[in-house]
Design a protein that fits this description.
510 residues, alpha+beta, 8-stranded mixed beta sheet, binds flavin-adenine dinucleotide
């Protein structure tokens, strides 16, 4: 064991999209601050941020039905859809800034335009979709959304999904051209390459075992090399716990009172992936359906065109399941060791309340491939089992805490937990996830560096022109941002929607 202690201004734990984003923002705001990144894996973006571990949807509520709920009076609540959409506009502005500043060379390496669609079957869901469309389509954030219940039109939009379909119930879909597929793994690696070029000290294979407050208020981290077992100590004035599923344990180790009483519920994921060119060529969209009754929102089924390593494929899923691990490369003891005296009652209450959900998830894990094919055939009626492989996705650790709704309530969003003095912050939860990384990291900056915000604001506004402004109340700004980010990120795609032609062109460009 070494007693060497390295001191830096900032330590980022974890090399996922969140640390990549926070590091990139801070490097622009205060280039001379020293930043160290500590990551247990051998590379950046190997956990949830990896392109094979998430669905790559640029979440902006263009297609996700769970962001618009029907109220008891029958009207549609679109407040969450607006929030998520505005947050995604923030991400697109920051990514555009990085492209315009030559810090990202080619946006096609991580973002591609792919229409976003919602698809429903059955009278009740068709009525819901019509109402959802009516509520969103007049809103400037959702401009360009189309609705159709005409099978002929749907055949043009989603030929693969309409082939060999029997029309025993009504169907309908909405479609919007301005959707995106984002390779968050590639983006994470691009951002870490950029940080490395700015002298950020990125240390792989380093597991943060412990975090303790020093007498001067800074933080001391005990860090173990996962190969050799040697231990180092690192200290910093500010620590960001960006460990994804690993964040809860680290937050607990910090001992800050804000982290007490919080627990985690891990949900695993599986995708079915098709890479057969003649099947892939028949579909170009991200098509989201309705979650099954009893299913958690993160298991809403969708059929997505994906661009990974300049190759196009189709992903279907995710099938949610239960695993006690908090990280894909985590330990079977993660759930048990996260139960402490301070969250025991909360966890027990959550355990009792969520028996049906846990049973559902366990049943999902045990589904045979044939059963999964049945779910896929709701989307692709003639899907051939030989064309689709199962791929294990990332883990999502949902927050459990006591809320006004009761003890041990399961939360499906993300939450920033920070110390009162702003010296340490953690990100818990996983939805809407990577798409909103820039907004969430700006929230951390505001919470943890209030003394600097005034001085940093001009630079933040240069990077994110809509910072501090409600886009919804500024339709012209929405238009401006939409046009400029689409141009910079190569999303200004106005070609007709023939999947085969468009796909050939996009692959050539990619
Ligand atoms: C199945 C699935 C589908 C998803 N789909 C989407 C989607 O379509 N769109 C979207 O926007 N988001 C999606 N998400 C969510 C998104 O992937 C996550 O929100 C995002 O990747 C989280 O990034 P992160 O940096 O917080 O965590 P991660 O990418 O998990 O990175 C955390 C890092 O911390 C490291 N680490 C953990 N503990 C330690 C430790 N003690 N010491 C050192 N290092 C440590 C890990 O090894 C890891 O590299 C999806 C997630 C899943 C699982």
């Amino acid at each position: 064991m070494s007693n060497r202690q390295t001191k830096t201004d900032v330590i980022l734990i974890g090399a996922g999209i969140m640390s990549a984003t926070l590091g990139s923002l801070l490097k622009e705001l205060v280039p001379d601050w020293e930043i160290t990144v500590l990551e247990r894996r051998g590379n950046a973006g190997e956990e949830s941020s990896n392109e094979w571990n998430n669905a790559g949807t640029g979440h902006s509520s263009l297609c996700e039905l769970n962001y618009t709920v029907e109220k008891p009076d029958g009207s549609i609540d679109i407040s969450k859809a607006i929030k998520v959409n505005e947050e995604y506009q923030v991400s697109k502005q920051f990514w555009s800034y990085l492209v315009n500043s030559n810090l990202i060379r080619n946006p096609r390496d991580f973002i591609v335009p792919v229409p976003h669609m919602s698809f429903v079957q059955g009278e009740q869901d068709v009525t819901f979709l019509k109402k959802r469309f009516a509520s969103l389509s007049n809103n400037p954030l959702f401009q360009g959304m189309e609705f159709s219940d005409d099978p002929g039109k749907l055949k043009q939009w989603i030929p693969l999904m309409m082939k060999d379909r029997t029309f025993d119930k009504p169907i309908a879909a909405t479609r919007i051209e301005s959707g995106t597929d984002v390779n968050f793994g590639a983006l994470t690696r691009i951002l870490f390459d950029h940080l490395k070029s700015k002298n950020v000290n990125i240390k792989f294979k380093q597991n943060v075992d412990d975090i303790k407050r020093a007498s001067d208020g800074s933080w001391e981290l005990k860090v173990r090399n996962v190969d050799s077992g040697t231990v180092e100590h690192h200290a910093a004035k500010f620590v960001f716990i960006g460990g994804g599923g690993g964040s809860l344990h680290l937050l607990q180790k910090s001992g800050i009172p804000e982290g007490k009483g919080i627990g985690g519920f891990p949900v695993s994921g599986l995708f079915m992936v098709c890479q057969k060119p003649d099947v892939v060529a028949q579909h170009r969209a991200k098509v989201y359906g309705q979650a099954a009754i009893g299913a958690p929102p993160m298991s809403v089924p969708h059929l997505d065109t994906r661009f990974i390593d300049k190759k196009e494929s189709l992903f279907f899923g995710p099938f949610a399941g239960f695993s006690p691990k908090f990280l894909k490369f985590g330990s079977m003891f993660d759930l048990v060791t996260s139960i402490k005296m301070h969250n025991l009652v909360t966890m027990m209450a959550a355990g009792v309340k969520n028996i049906p959900l846990t049973t559902y998830l366990i049943k999902q894990v045990m589904l045979s491939k044939d059963k999964r094919m049945e779910a896929l055939r709701e989307f692709v009626p003639n899907a051939n089992s030989d064309d689709w492989d199962l791929v294990v996705a990332g883990q999502r650790v949902q927050i459990i805490k006591d809320t006004a709704a009761g003890k041990g309530t399961l939360q499906f969003g993300t939450e920033v937990i920070s110390a009162a003095d702003g010296s340490i912050a953690a990100l818990l939860g996983a939805s809407p996830g990577a798409s909103t990384a820039v907004s969430v990291m700006l929230e951390i900056i505001k919470k943890c560096f209030p003394q600097h915000i005034k001085a940093w604001e001009p630079k933040i506004k240069e990077m994110i022109p809509s910072f501090g402004v409600s886009l919804l109340n500024n339709p012209e700004l929405i238009q401006e941002i939409h046009t400029s980010t689409s141009q910079t990120l190569g999303l200004a795609d106005k070609k007709p929607a023939n999947p085969k032609n468009q796909k050939k062109r996009m692959l050539k460009e990619a």
